[in-house]
């Protein structure tokens, strides 16, 4: 399987800590209900799962936001809940309501039954990845994704969305042994799922730990972070074409744990809007400097090379985020002001020779709202490109 050469590698370069002439931008949930063309295709497909399981529809809606906006990356159209669905829990999305599972995993018997699903049940996802790569024709890279083991467990135990996470936290505190088993199965399923997306053509992969931030300090490390680590440890480093596949970990509400997350074996950390990007940048750069005392020399070396002191040079993690998606409800001039403020908070973009590294990928701090006026997104994307070029020229 060979695909057309990539025409815009800005996103992949930024993921790997390399200099770019502008800050790349894409948006979480960029293909979704705020786009009238998405709603039209969804109506044809009849349901969300009808859309996600049909390769042609999934390809069509993945490309829809790219037709409107000069985004620097695309993301597979699917959902994190396809994995528990393949485990036999019976996923459905009722119109106007959130996701629902027919079966919930709350007791010893249900936990005992749980197993890594036959990946053939998820073939429609891998087929969609290959079809989207072909349709993109090298325009921008394609991101594959999965939920984190903890975030998937939240839906599997609650049976759907939740406002208080009562059932999943009850299981965690009352029967940590059962919770650990659910998370171990999820981690191994997610790792296989992402590796097959990589084989099918995904050029980067992202783990959505959307509900990591609802955990208490201590439980986050044991029940979320440890299993994200278990996923990362099993992931392939390169795709079928030999290109490095960057890994992104996004923990909503995880800003306080950023110092601990710098130790993850991933390339990019995603942040929600509560975190100052300049402060986050200092944390990731400090973490890399501790591992590599001669930091400037490290920048001149490929990551992973052996230094004179015998230490492995580690590039600081790139950061992805983090504008409040609600900014998109404000008038265009206010959107542009907020975009500049997020870019400025990250600070002067890294160039090879200039001091301390870390690169920035612009994104929302969480998924785009279905009520967003589509024309407002044009202002956001345009301002990211224009202002980030200005920052590099300054
Ligand atoms: C928690 C989570 C889910 N799904 C996802 C997450 C993690 C990201 C996050 O925290 O937002 C991830 C996801 N879901 C979807 C994508 C597609 C790719 C993209 O970003 O464009 C991605 C990356 C499509 C979708 N997944 C869903 C929709 C809307 C459903 C529809 O079209 O009817 C889309 C476009 C449904 C979904 N799926 C999920 C929920 C809670 C819902 C209902 C909420 C809602 O209605 O917005 C679970």
UniProtKB/TrEMBL annotation:
A Gene Ontology term for the protein's cellular component: cytosol
Pathway it works in: Porphyrin-containing compound metabolism; protoporphyrin-IX biosynthesis; coproporphyrinogen-III from 5-aminolevulinate: step 4/4
Protein's name according to its UniProt entry: Uroporphyrinogen decarboxylase
Matches recorded under PROSITE patterns: UROD_1 (PS00906), UROD_2 (PS00907)
Enzyme Commission code(s) on record: 4.1.1.37
Keywords: Cytoplasm, Decarboxylase, Lyase, Porphyrin biosynthesis
Family annotation (SUPFAM superfamilies): UROD/MetE-like
GO molecular function, one term: uroporphyrinogen decarboxylase activity
Pfam entry (one): URO-D
One GO-annotated biological process of the protein: protoporphyrinogen IX biosynthetic process from glutamate
Subunit structure: Homodimer.
NCBIfam families to which the protein is assigned, alphabetical: hemE
Location of the protein in the cell: Cytoplasm
Family the entry assigns: Belongs to the uroporphyrinogen decarboxylase family.
Function in brief: Catalyzes the decarboxylation of four acetate groups of uroporphyrinogen-III to yield coproporphyrinogen-III.
Residues annotated as domain Uroporphyrinogen decarboxylase (URO-D): 24-33, 143-159
Species of the source: Ottowia beijingensis
Entry binding sites for substrate: 29-33, 79, 155, 210, 366
